[in-house]
Amino acid sequence: MATTGKHFLPARLGQSPATPALSQVDFKFMQYILNAIRGALIGMAELVPGISGGTVALIVGIYERAVHNANDLISGRFKRVEWSFLVSVAVGMFIAVFAMSTVLSNFVENHVSASGALFLGMVAVSIFVPLSMLSKQERLRPSSIIAFVIATIAIFFITGFTSEPHENPSLIVVFFAAAIAVCALILPGISGSLILLTMGLYQPIIGAVSDRDLGTIAVFALGALCGLAAFIKVLNFLLDHHRAPTLMAMAGFMLGSLRALWPWGADQDASSGIIIGMFIIGALIVSAFIFIDLKKARAIDERTAQK
């Protein structure tokens, strides 16, 4: 016969009033941990040019939930905000950013050609992401083609002027760069680090995080918050009403920005074999993310079709 002692009561008998509460607490705690891990993956993605934090948010299944909560927060609908969800994701992101920033900063600074080749492979494959969100008919619309061409040409010339790293950018430059780069966190397919890279600010910003430069970090965070508040509704409007041209412009932006990542040239500090190898590794990393994303999308479509 089963004992009814305090330490030996079978859980399935349900004789302990604390058991359901304990299970519920454990479940909530595990959800916090899982959301923090999801946030960490997004944070690590945002550190690497070419891997979009928005794309990773889609892959781990929290993109729409995060966007809705961010919109409620910015709109002042605080009672509708899932605070435990947002805080756990944010904590995971911050931990990942501070933990990995030193590694990436050293890599970019000490291996210029190799890091450029790695990021070049990542960005080149990432161009597929916004294009894959559109049908062939949508991609071939005149408005889509015009947006793609203009974005490609504009960014190609802009990166020609701004691709060299700024050693000591002013705090005003850091503020506005953060305001622009944060838009990438909202849109899958665009990397915030890539935007900083094309501005010549990736290395100094990630260096500031690595060195725990609290002044620069605070200004960057303030710029990111202001940018999020200013652009989230605009970006949502563009995606809702001009989706195809917007996504095609994103693809053009990435194509034009490849100029800033070109690893061959007078300053080449690695052999062509290493450069090609790093390019392939970067392409494979992003390809894996895209494959998982597409597989997840197909599974959702199949479940929707069965209902």
Compose a concise summary of this entry.
By secondary structure, this protein is mostly helical.
Question: If you compute it from the alpha carbons, what radius of gyration comes out, rounded to the nearest whole angstrom?
Answer: 22 Å
Rough outline: globular
> Beta-strand level of the residues, as a percent range?
under 5%
Largest sheet: none
Percent of residues in helical segments?
over 70%
Sketch the topology as an H/E string, one letter per element.
HHHHHHHHHHHHHHH
Describe what you observe in this structure.
By secondary structure, this protein is mainly alpha-helical. The chain has one domain. Helices cover 75% and strands 0% of the residues. The protein has helices spanning 18-47, 53-59, 63-74, 83-110, 112-126, 128-132, 136-139, 142-162, 171-181, 183-186, 192-198, 202-210, 214-241, 243-257, 272-306. The protein is globular, with a radius of gyration of 22 Å. The model is unreliable at 1-19 (pLDDT under 50).
Name a few traits of the molecule:
mainly alpha; 307 residues; disordered N terminus; 15 helices
SSE diagram, text form:
Blueprint: H1 18-47, H2 53-59, H3 63-74, H4 83-110, H5 112-126, H6 128-132, H7 136-139, H8 142-162, H9 171-181, H10 183-186, H11 192-198, H12 202-210, H13 214-241, H14 243-257, H15 272-306
